[in-house]
Design a protein that fits this description.
The complex is a heterodimer. Chain A contains 9 helices and 9 strands. Chain A is of the alpha+beta class. Classes of the chains: A alpha+beta, B alpha+beta.
């Protein structure tokens, strides 16, 4: 039988669990490298899959954020310390920052269970809501092919002991249900997103032009443009928390915020690192922000950095606007299953 | 079909009544108030139908090998015996009789019934590599790894996609160790 590996892995002490998709069953494999234990969940028996959001992502972000904060405090408070110490702290800070970014990009954590006729079993490999959603997208057609069509809800309408309560989709940023027709959120034209993506493209062009035009007015214009961009990105984030926007556009907004923030920090740390190396451990390196920024701006690789950043920003902007236009063109009515497939998300 | 079934809240274990629907839906647990994402399947809303013993076999009709009074409805895909609806076991896309299922489980021929497998290739590879930390034990472990690789080469391994590369590497590493020991011993004999 052919198996296809589903995303996700649960590692324990000396063993790990993976989930595989077969023709007629899901296979959970508990392996220690020398033996494997198999648990099968046949598609014909699967009654429901339930995902409950957990606080794993927030906890890890909190731990990593505290560690990052601790590193930064040490870094800035010990500017006269030895070079290896500064370099170590810088590397640790970057590592913790990268951990936060990766953890955030992976999305919220969850605990996933599968209901079978003989009981409820945990699917430990589906630790992230995103991976659970991806796995379900793959499993759904196979289960439907074996179990047949879903019975009409009317047959059960009067017998449900408790009506389902729709929760606010804000809690499930990556797998939220499209709004019901009766309780549809106010229509959102995507103004903040259009503005943010347009400013991203404008800022990309301005960044390249800033290499030619060094005058104060242009620098002021560039500064205002950057400020407006961050304001619009923040507005877009706030909007997409409560309104339905295309999933790609939502991701582009987050990617833009993270990449811009990371680029600023990485440029600063690169400048600080260069200063530390320049000092060579013999004299105290210049750690002043203005000195570092001017040093970075004067470096011969800085134009290349700006060009790369501009291209990246322009790509994000174009992709975001494309997704907004594409979704508008499709006119997927909210509240249908097609809306979710088309990429509609209320996050 | 009037009874709605329920999914179990992973947080508090309370049954959460659900209605049929396609795709993932957000519902709230009535007990702990946790927001859950639920995907339901038709099996949740169907009754377990009782297994029927099968019709009584009439004169001139094929009857079950195990129940002479019952009409045969299928043939065992392994041994060819006639089976009634009570005796037929659908497994891996085939109809099997209880005896063949039992034999298949004992002999590990039915992959669908395998619940544990030993990965001899992993054992052999570890046996050929790990003892390098304590070089002197390789004089025992290297031949042992070669023996294991040859002995279990055709033994069913993991039911997941897996190549024989671990066996091959184990044999190569072990042969290199045996060769090393050979050169060492020959050198010692010559020097003596």
């Amino acid at each position: 039988m052919k198996y296809r590996r589903l995303h996700g892995k649960k590692s324990g002490l000396g063993h790990w669990i993976t989930l595989w998709m077969g023709e007629d069953h899901l296979l959970a494999v508990d392996s220690n490298g020398y033996s494997e234990g198999y648990t099968r969940y046949y598609y014909k028996d699967i009654k429901a899959i339930v995902a409950r959001r957990t606080n794993g992502m927030r906890i890890w972000n909190g731990v990593l954020g505290a560690a990052l904060f601790f590193c930064l405090i040490i870094l800035f408070s010990s500017s006269g310390a030895a070079v290896p110490w500064t370099v170590t702290m810088t590397i640790l800070a970057v590592a913790f920052l990268a951990g936060i970014v990766v953890n955030t990009l992976l999305g919220p954590t969850c605990r996933c269970t599968i209901s079978m006729p003989l009981g409820v079993y945990e699917l430990p490999t589906l630790k992230r809501i995103r991976s659970a959603r991806k796995a379900l997208d793959l499993i759904r057609p196979l289960v439907a092919a074996i179990q047949g069509p879903m019975p009409p809800p009317d047959a059960f309408a009067g017998t449900a002991a408790q009506p389902e309560r729709r929760v606010e989709p804000v809690h499930f940023s990556t797998m939220a249900e499209p709004p019901e027709a009766g309780e549809r959120a106010a229509p959102y034209g995507g103004g903040a997103h259009y503005a943010a993506f347009s400013l991203l493209i404008a800022q990309a062009f301005s960044g390249v032009m800033a290499m030619e035009f060094q005058g104060a007015p242009f620098k002021a214009f560039y500064g205002v443009l950057t400020f407006c961009l961050f304001v619009c990105l923040l507005a877009a984030v706030i909007k997409q928390r409560s309104r339905t926007v295309p999933r790609l556009a939502g991701r582009m907004v987050w990617t833009a915020i993270i990449s811009l923030t990371c680029s600023v920090f990485s440029a600063y740390y690169a400048g600080a690192f260069m200063n530390v190396l320049k000092a060579g451990g013999k004299e105290r390196p210049a750690m002043d922000v203005t000195v570092i920024v001017s040093d970075v701006a004067a470096h011969h690789y800085f134009p290349l950095f700006i060009v790369c950043l501009s291209i990246w920003g322009a790509l994000l902007g174009v992709a975001g606007i494309y997704s907004l236009i594409r979704d508008k063109g499709r006119s997927v009515p909210p509240g249908t299953a097609g809306a979710a497939r088309a990429g509609g998300v209320s996050s | 079909m009037t009874r709605p079934d329920a999914a179990i809240c992973p947080g508090c274990g309370t049954p959460v009544p659900l209605l049929p629907g396609v795709g993932m839906r957000a519902v709230a647990c009535s007990s702990c108030g946790e927001d859950l994402m639920v995907e339901t399947f038709p099996a949740l809303f169907s009754f377990d139908e009782p297994v029927l013993a099968g019709e009584m076999g009439g004169e001139g009709e094929s009857v079950c090998f195990y129940h002479e009074s019952r009409k045969a409805v299928s043939v065992c895909g392994e041994c060819g015996r006639f089976l009634c609806s009570l005796c037929e076991i659908r497994l891996g896309g085939r109809n099997l009789c209880p005896a063949c299922v039992h034999r298949g489980r004992e002999e590990e021929r039915l992959e669908a019934l395998v619940t544990r497998r030993t990965l001899y290739d992993g054992v052999a590879l570890t046996l050929s590599v790990a003892p390098l930390l304590f070089f002197f034990v390789t004089i025992i472990t290297a031949p042992l790894a070669i023996f294991m690789s040859i002995r279990f080469w055709n033994k069913p391994g993991s039911i997941l996609p897996r190549t024989k590369i671990r066996f091959v590497l184990a044999i190569l590493f072990s042969l290199a160790q045996v060769a090393g020991w050979g050169f060492l011993l020959i050198g010692m004999v010559k020097n003596a």
